[in-house]
Structure formats: C-alpha cells, structure tokens
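Worked example 2:
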Amino acid sequence: MTFLAILASIYLGANGSLQLPQGGGDMARRGGGAIMAGWYASDFWAIEGEAGWMERQASLAVKGLWHWWGYERFDPFFTFGARGWFPKGEAGPCAGTGFFYHLTDHWSLRADAEATLGLERDVEMVYMLGAGVQYEF
C-alpha cells in the first residue's frame, strides 16, 4: 500500500458527549467532548483511537468500527473495544452503535451511543452519547 493510499484512509473527528454512569461509585453525570483519529483497513473495517474530556475527568479508548451497510449517505456502524477514565474511574470493554451522515466525500456528521462495562471499581456500566463531525482525507 502506498503512502497516499494510507493517507486517504485516515480520518479525524470531534464531538460533544454526555457520560451517564450507572451503579454507584465516584463517577458522575458529565458533559464533555472527544477527538477521534482512525484508519480504514477496508471499506467496512476501521481502527480508531479516542481521547475524551469531561468536567473533572479524561478518557482514552481504542475501538474497532464495523460498517455493516455500505457507504451511502446514511452509514450505520457498530463499535467494540476498550475504554478507561482517569484519574479515578472505570476501565473495561466497550461496545456501541452509531451512524454517519455523509455531507460530502470528506465531511460527515456522526452520532454515537456506547456502553462500557466497568471492571475496575464500583460503577457497573457507563453509557456515553456523542454527536459531532468527522473529516476523511
């Protein structure tokens, strides 16, 4: 694969998000945002890293995206991976769903809904809702 082909498969995005923890613990409902960077390994599979921030907390995630229905203007996907919050938060596997609404060949609107199973502390599940934009090179 040439350098230009790899570059053409990279995307960057930003969103606003809402964190909804369930089951007790130190985490609270918070608003924030995230930036994402990813690479399309094929037309249907992507690998993505995400850095998020809330009012008094930050998160890191590594996820895979599976586009199960082509690349039309409306483009739904599933996510799976791992997410962790620090300094006093949860870490565990995450899964979710979302969609892109492609405005042009490069710009898209993006909406996500994910759940993280808490394995480290008292919080059982953390739900995340997000909406933003994405640019594909």
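The beta strands are 10-22, 30-40, 45-53, 58-66, 74-86, 91-102, 107-117, 125-136. The chain has one domain: 11-136.
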